[in-house]
Amino acid sequence: MTTVKRQAAAVLKYEKLFLPPAPFRSPSQPANNRLVTLSLYDSTRFPDKHRTSVVKEQARQSLIPRTMPRKTLRILCFGDSLTQGFHSFGMGESPYSTQLAQRLREILPEGTKLEMRTSGVPGDVAAFPRFRERFTQQITSRPFDWVITLGGTNDIAMGCRVDDTFKSLQSIWQLALSRRCRVLALTVPETHGNLPHVDAKRKDLNARILGFKAENYHTFDLHGKIPYRSLDDGQRDVYWDDGVHLSEEGYEWMGNHIADALVPFIVGDAAKLEEEEEHPKHISKGYVVVRRDDLD
C-alpha cells in the first residue's frame, strides 16, 4: 500500500473510531470540514514491528456544531432587600436580576446558557459578619463569571461607620476576584429621607466604591440612575414603593440600567470567543496514537 493510501486509511479509521457522526445538514448548508494531518515516524528510527504513527487533529472545536452549548455564563447578584426585589411590605418579590437575565439572553451567542443566582436578604448589613459569611457560602458553592454587589443602605440607616461598611465590601470583592470572578459593584441609591448626615455618609461610601481599583473590578453608579427626589410624584408612584424600596416596575427599571452597564462586557467577551473559534492558532491541538498495523 502506498504512503498516500496508508494516510487516507488512517484518517478514515480515525474518523470511524473516534469522531461522532456528522450532523444532518441540507444541501444548502456548507460542510463542516475536518482538518486532520498525518505525520509518519521515520521507519529507520522506529524499527519495531508495532511502531506507531501520530494522527494530529487540528481545530477540534470546529467539529462541534454551533448549535451545541459552548459555555455557561454564571452570574451572582448579591446584596440586601434591593437585590431581593422587596416590595409591597414584603408581599411581593421582583428582583432586578429577572430583567437583567432577559436582556442578557437577547444578546448571548446561540447555544450559550445563562445561570443567574440571586442572593438578597432584607435588612442585611454589609458591616456585619453575617453579610460576609453569606457571601463566602455563595461564592464557594460554584464558579461564577460575574458577581454584582449592592450593599450599604441598611448600614447608613443604622449609623454604621463608613469605614466598616467599605472594609466589608472590599473583602467580598477581593474574595470574588481571587476566585477569578469579575465584579460589578453598584453604588447605594438614595431614599426619600432628606437628612444631611445620611446623605454625607452615602456620598462618602459611593465615592469609595467608585474609587476602588483592582483588575477585573468594575463599578456602576446606580445612585445616579435611579433617583427619588428629582422625580415628580407621578414617576415616584410608578418606580418607588415606600421611599426605600422600588416597585415591581422600579426593579425592572433598575435591571435595565444594570444591563446597560453589563451588556458591553458580555458582548466583548462573546466577540473574543468568536474570534478564537475562527483562528485555529488559538485552539488546543489533540493527538491520537494509531498502531502501525492499522495503516495496512
TrEMBL record:
Domain of life: Eukaryota
SUPFAM superfamilies: SGNH hydrolase (SSF52266)
UniProt xrefs under Gene3D superfamilies: SGNH hydrolase
Domain SGNH hydrolase-type esterase: residue ranges: 77-252
Pfam families found in the cross-reference section: Lipase_GDSL_2
InterPro entries hit by this protein: Ester_Hydrolysis_Enzymes, SGNH_hydro, SGNH_hydro_sf
GO molecular function annotation: phosphatidylcholine lysophospholipase activity
Protein name per UniProt: SGNH hydrolase-type esterase domain-containing protein
Species this protein is from: Akanthomyces muscarius (Entomopathogenic fungus)
